[in-house]
Specification:
Distance between the termini: 70 Å
Shape: globular
Number of helices: 24
Radius of gyration: 25 Å
Helix content: 55-70%
Length: 492
């Protein structure tokens, strides 16, 4: 084979000049022309040509869908979307792993901008809190926050939906384990990449801001600046019953954090007490218990003044009964938070095992979990056991199985129907997570006390073997019958 020099590869006749007239089909033809010379060039230097870049057909899939997806991007902001341009370049070259990385960079850039616009102080109050809160002040400090924290914080502030957060978490897993951000041999096809881009543009870039009158960031920012008079507070109170449960939780957590900060003005604390009275009545018991755990956590972190202020706010709503019986609930909650953050980040195969062992030591031989954190404990344990879809933390998995085996019948009920949750549903799009979910059902079947639950487990084990099998399970007759039966028996 004759040697090829660089000039033969970069033929001027093949350069695609960006213009409104450059169609997806034309770019596809240019890719065909370039591809042959590219592989010849690699081969002439003895370099691999297989499994290096995506097939031309896969690139066509992304390019041909690009215009349809891009039309949802806010028109006035396209000129600053540098990472989208890099995404297209990587797709054209067949470097899907790099394209995914660029797409994620664009998503993070937009999320950070949205957070800054909504109010940095509010975001840091809710998402950081504790001793580290004073380290976060400017927009630059967003760089210190992991991508998973950014996504979860944006959800708490309702800048994105719960479903969007689950989708972005899934894409983050892909970015960590199937992109150029991490050495890998993962396959990423054109339809997947086009779908991920569609999600990031529709759910993040093109998402309209929520109604300012009931926006959590706006509310908390106004409270903190002590700008609301009595009539404004009454207007907010009138809107509280119409808020979604998740928004009420975010608001209560944010109010607690602001109330406990040293620099909060007396007038702002008065407004918080005024809001907390009706807000407390709208919170369910689990949300009230979670606030109680947060109060104790101030003490564990050595923040005595903040702990006293938290108790003061609880006393205002007669909420002392929702404090955990001991500090163990707060200790377990802190480890669960760390474990979930590790699970969503790179290097989780190494960072999860010590946290899993720490959790196991706190849970103990009997597996007794304080009621204040029981729901959160179940959800985190299922999440980490199912894996991120791209590999198993082998040194942590035996610990997870031991903890699952200690579930009570009621906890097993919640675990079996966890596929109804958006975050678990998204995980079940990958075969590894499906395999782990089925293994979990086998592990929990002996624990199940209700015949209805055993029947449902048997049905799932017999009929659900791959991700596509779970698509219709959520609304199936068997699922509805199980949930109805468990609620009738008050086991859910």
């Amino acid at each position: 084979m004759s040697k090829h020099n660089t000039d033969e590869i970069i033929d001027e006749s093949m350069v695609v000049v960006p213009s409104p007239l450059t169609s997806g089909k034309k770019l596809s033809r240019e890719i065909d022309t370039f591809w042959g010379k590219y592989t010849d060039f690699l081969a002439s230097h003895g370099l691999p040509t297989e499994s290096v870049v995506a097939d031309v057909d896969e690139r066509r899939t992304v390019i041909n869908n690009f215009a349809t997806v891009l039309k949802h991007y806010p028109e006035g902001q396209l000129s600053s979307a540098v990472y989208i341009s890099k995404f297209v370049g990587a797709v054209a070259a067949g470097l899907f792993d790099a394209a995914l990385n660029y797409m994620w960079d664009e998503t993070v850039r937009i999320l950070r901008r949205r957070v800054a616009e909504a109010g940095l102080d509010t975001f840091y109050d809710i998402c950081i809190g504790g001793k580290k809160r004073d380290e976060f002040k400017s927009e630059q400090d967003l760089n210190k926050i992991s991508d998973s924290q950014l996504v979860q914080g944006a959800q708490e502030l309702e800048l994105i939906s719960e479903v969007c957060a689950a989708q972005l978490t899934h894409i983050l897993y892909m970015r960590n384990y199937a992109s150029a951000a991490h050495p890998n041999q993962s396959e990423l096809n054109g339809l997947q990449l086009a779908h991920y881009l569609d999600t990031c543009i529709k759910e993040v870039a093109a998402l309209s801001p929520s109604d300012p009158a009931i926006s959590i960031p706006v509310l908390l920012k106004g409270i903190k600046s002590d700008k609301y008079n009595e009539s404004a507070l009454n207007l907010i109170i009138e809107k509280l019953p119409d808020m979604h449960r998740n928004k009420l939780i975010s608001l209560s957590n944010g109010l607690l954090q602001i109330y406990c900060r040293d620099e909060t003005a007396p007038g702002a604390r008065l407004n918080i007490r005024t809001l907390m009275t009706p807000l407390w009545k709208l919170l369910d018991d689990q949300s009230r218990k979670d606030l109680g755990v947060r109060c104790v956590k101030f003490s564990l972190d050595g923040e005595g003044d903040a702990h006293e202020k938290a108790l003061e706010l609880l006393d205002h709503v007669d909420g002392r009964s929702y404090l955990p019986d001991d500090v163990r609930a707060a200790e377990i909650r802190a480890v669960l938070d760390e474990l979930m953050e590790a699970h969503r980040s790179m290097g989780n195969f190494y960072s999860e095992p010590p946290l899993a062992r720490n959790l196991s030591s706190l849970v103990g031989k009997l597996g007794e979990i304080p009621s204040e954190i029981e729901a959160y404990y179940i959800n985190v344990l299922i999440n980490v056991y199912l894996t991120n879809g791209y590999g198993t933390a082998f040194n942590a998995e035996p610990v997870y199985r031991e903890l699952l085996a200690k579930f009570s019948p009621e906890q097993a009920n919640a675990a079996v129907i966890s596929f109804m949750r958006p975050d678990i549903d998204m995980k079940l799009h990958t075969q590894l997570c499906v395999d782990k979910y089925l293994a979990m059902l086998n592990l929990l079947r002996p624990i199940a006390a209700q015949s209805e639950l055993k029947t449902f487990i048997d049905h799932v084990l017999a009929t659900c073997k791959k991700p596509s099998d779970f698509k219709n399970l959520k609304n199936s007759q068997q699922t509805n019958a199980l949930i109805t039966a468990l609620r009738r028996l008050k086991k859910l």
